[in-house]
Amino acid sequence: MSDTIDVPKALSGTGSWLDDRFHGARGLRVLMRKVFPDHWSFMLGEIALWSFVILLLTGTFLALFFVPSSAPVVYHGSYVKLNGLTMSQAYASTLNISFDVRAGLLMRQIHHWAADLFMAALIIHMLRIFFTGAYRKPREVNWLIGIGLFTLGLLEGLFGYSLPDDQLSGAGLRIFEGVLQGIPIVGTYLSFFLFGGPYPGDIIIPRLYIVHVLLIPGLILALITAHLFIMVHQKHTQMPGLGRTERNVVGQPFFPYFIAKGTAWFFFIFAALALLATFAQINPIWLYGPYSPVQISSASQPDFYMGILEGSLRMMPAWEWNFLGHTISFSVLIPFAVPLTVVLGGAAFWPFFEQWATGDRSYHNVLDRPRNAPIRTATGMAAVVFYGVLWAEGANDVIADYTQIPLYTVTWIARVLIFVGPAIAFYVTRRICIGLQRKDRELLEHGLETGIIRQLPDGEFIEVHRPLDEEERAPLEAKKVPALMPAPGSEDENGVPAPQAHGALGRARAIANRAFAETITLETNGHGNGHGNGHGPPEEHAEIGPGELPESSIPHSDPLLWHPHEEPPEQS
Amino acid sequence: MSDMEEVEGPEGSGAPVPPHRVIGTPPPTPRLLGSGADDGGAADGHGAEVEPAEEKLPEVSDYPAHASNAEKIVAFCFVLAFIAGCGFIAAYIGLEVGSVDSVFRSNLALGLSLSVALVGLGFGALIWVRQLMPDVEMVEERHELRSSDADREAFDEYFVEGTAASQFVKRPMVRRTLLLATLPLAAIPIVVLRDMGPLPGTSLRHTVWSPGRRLLVYGTNQPITPAEFSAPGQSITIVPEGYTDDLDVLAKATVTLIKFRPGELQIPTVSNGGTLIGTMNWTVDNIVAYSRICTHVGCPVGLYEQTTHHLLCPCHQSTFDASTGATVIFGPAPRPLPQLPLTTDAQGYLVAKSDFTQPVGPSFWERG
Amino acid sequence: MGWINARRRRPVVGYAALLLGLVIVGLLYGALTRTSAQAAPTTAQQDIANGRALFEATCSSCHGLDAQGTSQAPSLIGAGAAAVYFQMSTGRMPAKEVGAENARGPVKFTEQEILDIAAYIQSIGGGPPIPTAEQVSTEGANTALGSQLFMANCAQCHGFAGDGGALTYGKFAPAMTQATPTQIYTAMLTGPEAMPVFADGALTPSAKRDIIAYITETRVEPNPGGLSLGRVGPVTEGLVIFLGGMGVLVLIAMWLTAKRREPWDVAQEENAREARTAGTSGTSGTEH
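YS: structure for the whole thing
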């Protein structure tokens, strides 16, 4: 027990009552001391979590005033510019919330900004997980759950901003219906079933409403619970560092540190959203007007997370097949199916692909620094560029307007970049990773530059390097080199042929394996001869850069001199 | 063992290092598996990962002088948050809404007070954690995720025993009829969705345009004569008479009307299969009507450029040449916009000669 | 910047502070500067003879002495006073060069001179006249109908708030923040450059008034939700959430989880103590 405080009577009384019934003390005891590693990038998922909580709170408020109905009504309300206009009750009630309910506009804006922040945080969080390799065993299922959450978030946002039935989101619904209609064989049925008849019908708003406030949030809640439970049960990963191993977690205890930080973080996120809702107008539906399929505006974009679908629809050239009384429109199907499948499907597939390519089935609780996994990082950057080009193309008319580049030229640039961009990104990122690995090796060998210049007796100037201390060395030395699998067709010393190395798949695996195993070895054998010690992988030679002094020119006798390659002299 | 150690920086580095409290283990070196010091009970499935309270969290802030300063800052932040929170309530009560200007003021006041309250709380909490709480670093053992072989065997055993006891494997008739019984129940949730909507039938192939139906200007709902539409370079949005408020109809039937100079309009006579789909005979006085619904995914194609006579759809930039039958010249639209056959009625107003001769709007499987 | 960085481990904070300062200054500038509107034209007596003289001096070099057009410029016969008024009062004419299109620019003639030239062109070829003050007055206009007409006929080029948009081949539909009611009316009536003509037979004068009322009301309407972000829609909203929202939150996360260091003065004391005891032997460098 502490010297200064005791458990207050009220708390201990309640606590005993509960523990008598629920056996809570043991579990809570463990939970209170549970260690959570501390790194800023581990807080990104929490942005999404707290944004979701805020979405639930503000969404409940909005649901108390919103009327999810397409029934027409003639508007006579506070937004006098539209008085006399026939509009749906959904739109009219949204105008009501914005202009006639106190704090209504604030709640609407917080809600919409929180939805955008949720998706933005998820993207950055997923990228962090990917680039640090946190999806590896035993966390593959959590990675898949995360992708599921992202997809659900996409749909939830799409349906949510379509609820007010304004011109902008209505145009998006129209596009959604047109894409649906174009699906082979079942498209027209899907469209008529969803909309209750021909587009737009009068049932889509109530249907989207129930999906948006009940079905998807329920699924998201369930998946978030699973996601967090798995993360707590398996314990969080940690960045490589001093004292951090695969068998431990180093950080701060749950109670009170993690709770305190989490609470502070919640307030900051809520504050950021409140500031945005105060100073940055979002989704001004009164300016868009109520939806009519006759009307359209330029700069009609969906919310940013749908941007890649919009961009792929704009980028795709015309392509359609007509045969035997049937039509398939690839200019609609390919944008609909390909980008999300590539990005999300590829992401879902990646952990298993990496396991296959590296043969690595061990547990990974310590994260990789992105530079130490060049192929993974390069592939991730290629995917980011792929996603980014599609996303930017979704705003092509706005870009054309602001940059004064002709409209079609923007699209042509995107059509070229979508293929060229990821390839360049892959190549450049891989080179940068290898370069950074070389830099790490140099740091280990030569230490950090101190900025102190010394003059040698023969007149030459050198910069003094300080060797890294324990804490600085640890992340660099924690680098793991993926093992090279036996080459196809090879045999070990007993003549046993390499397993799983047959055929085209085996050869492909060998190629992938070689690529993944490529690394700059960290063997710091002092004088940087740099030829490694025969591990086998085709390593890059860590050539020593400029500044390396030929050994013969240094007199080693002077105790005040410190050769960059040697250990620092003992301090007297 | 669990001392509060002061870890020094490397020899001669000359830099001071803050007191570094490590709880739970000796100086941070990687722990070996199965070493004697591994007394966290890792093999125990109930895993008390932390030893029963022998190490203690420090009770005192790291730098007491600074902590008392920080305490004041934290308290100030929380008081500010309190004031701002009260401000929110006051603004809610005091500020009206009901016009654009009043909503502007109300939103600003409510939002600002809420933001200040939240920033105050967040900032206060941040300073509290960083300056008031002593800095600790704790190490916890990870337990093996894989169950022990004994556990796995026990699971297998129980599973096999239970399956055998259930007779599930031994009695195939029961098993198979169970499966049979559940199949319709699994299908029912799909089946009962049937009434979500009618079957499309042929409704996508037709619009409400019919012989003699007048073209009305959208918004004003007035019919129009060729004389009223005589200035070259004109374009206007058209809706069918009798359906000016029916969104379901308008989503397929709205039309763009364009007037050309003599000689500019050159629509070739085009047939698809045996059906005529475009011809100069469907124009009146160099006035042509095209479906406004884009053949890509259905946005209204409203953007008419008089000088180039291009119709541009703002959604995905499909571009159609209105002088040659709305042929596609850029963008993802796969087909030209259908042309509406035009003529005039007895009073001289523009009317449709018939419905479109092909389905309007986005492609679909049964389109043909 | 130095004093911010001196106490911080991460140099990124200095850059973040600088960026924040720039953003604040930019926002303040945007908020405090306003564009001025132009006055409506007066219907004073127009002098056709003066108009002719001005025309021959300035416009005939491209449009021909009889306004019949040349290879460089179209004929103005039938263009009408309305077209002349629009082009000249927005500064598009006299055009400096023949490009993809002419943009609004500084007006080179006085209002009276423009009316004179317009009267002259009207006299030699006819065409749509300049609307009267009643015709462009927005009193009693039906803005609800105006919004529908605008969204159906105008927004696809000019944007839902009249902020302009891109057309094909380098053309642009301009923003309508500065156009006077007469300029909007004459633009609709005459269809300048790529803009289609909206003659009175199809878009009645009453409908035009409704559209003008909608445009003029919308552009001065305050943004109750805060800064308008350009009234462009989700594109700028997405930029704000990434650069503003996520950017700021990441910086705060870095602050929340930063390694705790000794307070400044405690560290200074220890440094001083070390220097006293360590003597003058060379150190091997300072930490970064």
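YS: worth flagging: The two ends of chain B are 82 Å apart (CA to CA).
IM: good catch. Also Residues 1-19, 24-53 of chain B have pLDDT under 50 and may be disordered.
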